[in-house]
Design brief:
The chain has no helices and ten strands. The protein is mostly beta strands. Strands 2-1-5-6 form a four-stranded antiparallel beta sheet, with no helix packed on it. It has a four-stranded antiparallel beta sheet with strand order 3-10-7-4, with no helix packed on it. Strand 1 and strand 2 form a beta hairpin. The chain starts with a strand and ends with a strand.
Length: 102
């Protein structure tokens, strides 16, 4: 059984036991979080999409909060001596999928 959920402007295909990294949720490690924006649910016999999957939820527990690897942003314009270097580390929340309620 798997489900497709939407959080943080992205979509994730999840199954029970999966650990995924999503945009920062603001929840401490060890707490539980429920994703109610479920786009599709697939069980052994059928696929529920859209309005058919409207009542479905996905329950997960927070494993950790952290920062991803640094991404270097380098801006450069030739012949003018302009260059600028910036770094960015995106914050994330790692969650473990506990149960898919369809």
């Amino acid at each position: 059984m798997y489900a497709i959920i939407a959080t943080g402007g992205k979509q994730y295909k999840v199954a029970e036991g999966d650990i995924i990294k999503v945009e920062k949720l603001g929840v401490e490690a060890g707490e539980s979080v429920t994703f109610d924006q479920v786009l599709a649910v697939r069980d052994d016999a059928s696929l529920k999409v859209g309005a058919d999957a409207a009542g479905a939820t996905v329950t997960a527990s927070v494993v950790e909060n952290g920062k991803a690897r640094k991404v270097i942003v380098y801006k450069y314009k030739r012949k003018t001596g302009y260059h600028k270097k910036n770094g960015h580390r995106q914050q994330y929340t790692a969650v473990k999928i506990e149960k898919i309620n369809a």
